[in-house]
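Case study 2.
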Amino acid sequence: MATKKQERDRLRRRHEKQLAAATKKAADRARLRIIATIVGVIVVLCLVLWWAGSTFSEVTPGRTVTTAGCEAPPKSLGTSAELTLPDKAAVAGKTFEATLTTNCGDIVLSLDAEKAPQAVASFVQLAEADYWLNSPCHRVVRSTQMTLLQCGDPTGSGQGTPGYGFGVENAPADGVYERGVVAMARTPDPEKGNGGQFFLVDGKTTIQDPDGYSVFGTVTSGLDIVDKIIAAGVAGGAEQTDGAPNAPISILRVAVTEKKAQP
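Prediction:
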């Protein structure tokens, strides 16, 4: 028969084992709580970073960003064309509406063939020929004098042409291009420098050129899209003022319809 001392020792050992087991369980529970908290924080941070990356624009040197509402642009087809300059008489005196469907939404233009018949005739022909299919807007200018987005070159290089050129028409005498204006971009040759490239003016822009640039339309809807692209800046850093858009935008297709005069 066990003595009282032996019984006390047995009870003490059992209590110590129970205490050790309880302490281990408590430590395990605490460790699991810490792990769960860390995992939860990581998940929340990942969600926040994903949401921020897909929602906001940011200007980061050497990095292309995603602008709110923009899908990833398609790969450029990278080709120009060899077309013939259309007859401006076919559109003279008419007004057209053009819808530029982009990866950031629709930009709608009103084209004035009365003031710029050759530019509008060319624009209509290129739209009908799908010349701008998956065409990147390759240039943003954001300076104290100029604020614009330049598009219309399916090669994305700024050197592509439709195979013809034509002269300047309807250029502002004072060299001032107001917000919302759509004008032809051109080479230094004012007689044959216009082709398929054009620019959308985001803010009052002054271009000191004696020959000027053909104003052939205005943005009637979607200028907020241009605002976002301009606000995202130029690729290469916040100090850049002229170059490829930091937030990519491409023209997926262009549809043009004639606006009939009201009876």
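The longest strand covers residues 194-203.
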